[in-house]
Design brief:
alpha/beta; three-stranded parallel β-sheet; 13% strand
Length: 400
């Protein structure tokens, strides 16, 4: 940001020295510089509505910051590095209940398709009894004025932090929480963990369901510490620590095994929101006629609610593996089914797994008559994704 302003990069080093590397203080000085420049020669770089006494003077710096992040954030489809693409795919497969981030950029929304961004103060008004949200607790680039950047922002955030903590407590209390790509340096996040710790930590200060994944570029020692310690306002808390120089095995361990993993998160959120409105508003206010016989079936029969909602319980191979080998070839853009045999043999040679030798997530055999030979082979959508990688010569894994 200093480079984008007339002061130049030297002013950054000058202010680092002047303010003893206090980045929040430096950001506040930078905000003043951006404000002065915007009202003079930089006026054409900003929206007209910023030039009003009703808008904070910090808006100019925040606008520049958000423009910068928008410019440098890659498109998911443009990432060519095989290792990085593989890691991101494994990350997406986790399907977490929710994501909490201090990042301003929207890259996570590309990785977790269908997840909804909830930003800044919006969190305070949001119903957290849902699924598939990305909470940007420091704001995001879609609304520059929302981002937490200057001392004034941090002071204001500290005042409202307890309400954010209360909103997020449900996630910390009811789900395992994994901290990834984060060094526990941000005072806001540590203070949230402190609030959570005061409620759920044991007598030794251990928050039992929170894990910090610590990235190590170097060789990991034989017995790394299995806990991370942090202090806030004189109080000390501990969380579990996992040291690694490879995220792949962690993402694989956290990977969703849910039968609903292919459901669009938007659909799940819509169903949950409508259910909450029905239970908390419509029924008590008499706005709907209640069929208690139907409600009793929902309570007593485990498969009745999915059927009522139009969701099929997948214990039928025709639903979990709907594709014939000809349809599979068509999905892959192959002229006929014979080339698939070569791909199946290639997988067997490279991975030691014969997909057709058993019923698995890619393939199953369905009886079509009384004779032993009366059967049909069917393939799943996961098989389509697997064969696409093989055809493209990409790295692939076979999980049976």
């Amino acid at each position: 940001m200093f480079e984008k302003l007339p002061a130049g990069a030297d002013a950054y080093e000058y202010n680092r020295q002047k303010f003893d590397d206090d980045m929040v203080a430096i950001g506040t000085v930078l905000s003043d510089m951006a404000f002065e420049w915007a009202w003079k020669e930089g006026r054409n770089h900003f929206p007209p509505e910023y030039f009003s006494s009703k808008v904070s003077k910090d808006a100019f710096l925040k606008h520049l910051v958000c423009e910068h992040f928008a410019a440098i954030t890659p498109a998911l489809g443009d990432i060519q590095a095989p290792d990085l693409a593989k890691e991101l795919a494994a990350f997406a497969d986790i399907k977490p209940h929710a994501i909490i981030t201090t990042n301003y950029d929207m890259f996570l929304e590309q990785v977790f398709d269908g997840y909804e961004p909830i930003s800044g103060q919006t969190i305070l008004r949001y119903n957290t009894n849902s699924f598939g949200e990305i909470f940007h607790i420091h704001g995001d680039i879609s609304k520059p004025t929302s981002i937490v950047l200057t001392k004034h922002d941090y002071d204001e955030w500290t005042e409202k932090k307890k309400y954010v903590s209360a909103k997020l407590l449900t996630y910390f209390a009811e789900h395992p929480v994994f901290i990834l790509g984060y060094g526990m340096g941000d005072p806001n996040v540590k203070s949230i963990l402190r609030d959570i710790g005061e409620l759920v930590a044991d007598e030794d200060g251990l928050i039992p369901n929170v894990y910090q994944v610590i990235w190590r570029h170097d060789q990991i020692e034989k017995h790394p510490p299995d806990q991370a310690v942090f202090g806030v306002d004189g109080k000390e808390f501990r969380i579990h620590a996992i040291h690694t120089n490879n995220f792949d095995w962690i993402f694989e361990a956290l990977k969703s095994q849910s039968a609903l993993k292919s459901i669009n998160p938007k659909l799940v959120r819509a169903l949950a929101a409508r259910t909450m409105k029905l239970v908390r508003h419509d029924i008590p206010s008499g706005a709907v006629e209640v069929n208690y016989e139907t409600l009793e079936k929902v309570a007593d029969e485990k498969d009745f609610l999915p059927t009522l909602l139009g969701i099929t319980v997948v214990d039928n191979p025709n639903q979990s593996h709907p594709l014939t080998i000809t349809q599979l070839a068509d999905r892959l853009g192959l002229p006929h089914w014979q080339p698939l045999n070569k791909l199946i043999h290639r997988i067997k040679a490279e991975k030691g797994i014969d997909l057709r030798s058993s019923d698995n997530r890619y393939h199953c055999r369905i009886k079509t008559g009384t004779k032993a030979s009366s059967m049909a082979r069917k393939w799943s959508h996961e098989a389509v994704n697997l064969f696409r990688k093989v055809v493209a010569g990409e790295e692939y894994e076979v999980v049976v």
